[in-house]
Amino acid sequence: MDQNQLVEKIRAHPDYDRVGMILTHNGVVRATSRDGSPVSGVRMEVRRELISQIVESEKKQPGIVEILVEITHKTDLSVGDDIMLIAVAGDFRENVLSCMTRIIDAVKSRVTAKTEYFS
User: Fold this and answer.
1) Residue 54 is part of which domain span?
2) DSSP-based three-state secondary structure for 23
3) How far, in Å, CA of 115 to CA of 119, rounded?
């Protein structure tokens, strides 16, 4: 996964002249769970068939030009490994920021499931 490649794909979009902001998100495996317990890694389950539905729905939102989502193909991940990359391009900051928040929330709640391994 390469964040720069996502940005380059967006720059090649035919409607790139409408873009005023590109926002990227790089989710990685943390060394601690939300409660502060040490984590040595995670096991990932991904329902890839849902990604395109989420992206197509969000592309209909005002000002959004492009959305790209990449999720790791690995099942077992270690601390520091990339989980997902998301890039959202749109006209104005408020449209892009709110879209990114919705995309992250949807992917985390509907597409991916993580099981943490504790140290």
Assistant:
1) 3-28+48-112
2) strand
3) 13
Q: Is 2 left (phi over 0), alpha (psi -120 to 50) or beta?
A: beta
Residue 15 lies in a domain: yes
Is the separation of the CB atoms in 64 and 99 below 8 Å?
A: yes
Number of domains in the chain: 1
Burial class (CB in 10 A: 0-12, 13-18, 19+), 107: buried
pLDDT tens digit at each of 119 positions of the chain: 899 999 999 999 999 999 999 999 999 999 999 999 999 999 999 999 999 999 999 999 999 999 999 999 999 999 999 999 999 999 999 999 999 999 999 999 999 999 998 86
At residue 84, φ and ψ (nearest 5 deg) are: -155, 155
Sequence-ordered list of residues with C-beta below 8 angstroms from that of 101, at least 6 positions apart, any chain = none
For residue 112, the cross-strand partners are 46
Instruction: Tell me, yes or no, whether 37 lies in a domain.
Output: no
Which CATH number goes with the domain that contains 81? 3.90.1170.40
